[in-house]
Amino acid sequence: MCSTELGDGNHPRQGAGVGAGECCVERVQLAHGVLGEVAAGAGGNPLLMEQSVANNDVSKLQRLERAWQRNQTNLASMRVSATTQVGTLDRNIDALTAALPRVVDTSDDLFRMTVAGREYGKRAEAGIAIGEWAARNGVRYLPTNVDRNLGNLGQVGGFPIDVASRTSLGQVQIVAELRGGPGASVSVPRDQFSEAGVGLVRQLENRAASVPKLIAETQQKRVEAETTITEVDARIGDPFKHSAELHEAQARQAHVLADLAAMANEQNPRAETPNDSVPGGTDDQTAARDRVKKLAERACARADGEGRGEARDHSLDIRPGRPSRCNRAFSSREFRPAM
To answer: Disulfide engineering: 163 pairs with which of 71, 150, 260, 302, CB 3.0-4.6 Å?
Structure first.
């Protein structure tokens, strides 16, 4: 039952009828506020939360799928590269095997080396001859952006020596390779080639003597390339292991989007007609306002009854047929549930 003392306690006591009417307005306002809070709470649409979860799941799984696709592409490239390497190694093995009988022992006093058509029996003299050959061919002044074949330097250990310049990042390397022995080469910086001396001579000797070792190393590289091909074949073409999860997440995402679209269509305001008693709103909104009005009318009726009883006790004149303060307050307000 409403109290007839209103305000902040500093105002005088009002009549019972007036207090009951104002109390009715308070009840209606309270009901209106509660309904607004419920509608506002519905703003935390669970579909939006579900959509966020579905979007995150789809994005995560799509990233995994892209990584899987990149991995499959890399595996295919690895297989092509390994297959090409096997072919090259096979040719190198054949060439080294064919060159093996040509190897000449140059150890100790057996050393013999030809530089620019002249044979030397001492390593120091052969080193000096290499420096002179480099000076005649302008090795110190070679360009840093062009590779060049400098021709034949001489012969050592049964193999002709072919020299060429190779450039990389502005640096020039001089490569001396034993013809017919793939992988049997020595590379030194341009500025050091002319002064390499005995060190370069010994390196060329060792490369000629290491042909049997080169054959074994090349065969091992071929085995490794074959192993790579076998491993790639075992992994390439593997299905994406999260495929089912991705399809489920995408289906969930599409379902939520469809539900949100349907909800948006339902909440789209309909066109107002002249017969509409309350401007704007959907059927659901109109029904909600009607329920609030009925609750308010019942509250007003109870408050008016109580007010009239107390008014008779206080000899107040309440004329029949005249709208109560509650009804007047209600009719002067437009009650809409908050959206």
So the answer is: 150
Same domain, 151 and 203: yes
Distance CA 99, CA 322 (A): 126
- Radius of gyration (C-alpha) of the chain in whole angstroms: 49
What is the pLDDT at residue 108? 87
Please, are residues 223 and 7 in contact by the beta-carbon 8 Å criterion?
no
Does residue 258 share a domain with residue 158?
no
Phi, psi dihedral angles at 135 (to 5 degrees) = -65, -40
Q: 113-158: per-residue pLDDT in tens?
A: 999 999 999 999 999 999 999 999 999 888 888 899 999 999 999 9
Query: Tokens standing for 336?
Result: 């809409």
Structure tokens at 317: 């004149």
Neighbouring C-beta atoms of residue 306, cutoff 10 Å: 19
Rounded Cα distance between 152 and 130, Å, is 11
Q: Does residue 337 lie in a domain region?
A: yes
DSSP code per residue over 6-23: -SSS-SPPPPHHHHHHHH
Non-local CB neighbours of 4 within 8 Å, separated by 6+ positions: 13, 14, 15, 16, 19, 20, 23, 310
Side chain identity at residue 21, one-letter code: G
Mean pLDDT of 71-84: 95
Report whether 277 contacts 336 (CB < 8 A). Answer: no
Q: What is the mean pLDDT of the chain?
A: 77
pLDDT tens digits for 167-195? 988 889 999 999 999 989 999 998 888 88
For residues 83 and 75, give the distance between their C-alpha atoms in angstroms, rounded to a whole number.
Answer: 12
- Round to the nearest angstrom and report the end-to-end CA distance of the chain: 31
pTM of the model: 0.56
Q: Using alpha carbons, list the distances in angstroms from residue 319 to 252, 303, 323, 326.
A: 65, 16, 9, 15
Question: Has residue 2 been placed in a domain?
Answer: no
Max CA pair span of the chain:
146
Token representation of residue 96: 């080294």
Looking at the fold, whether 252 and 188 belong to one and the same domain comes out as no
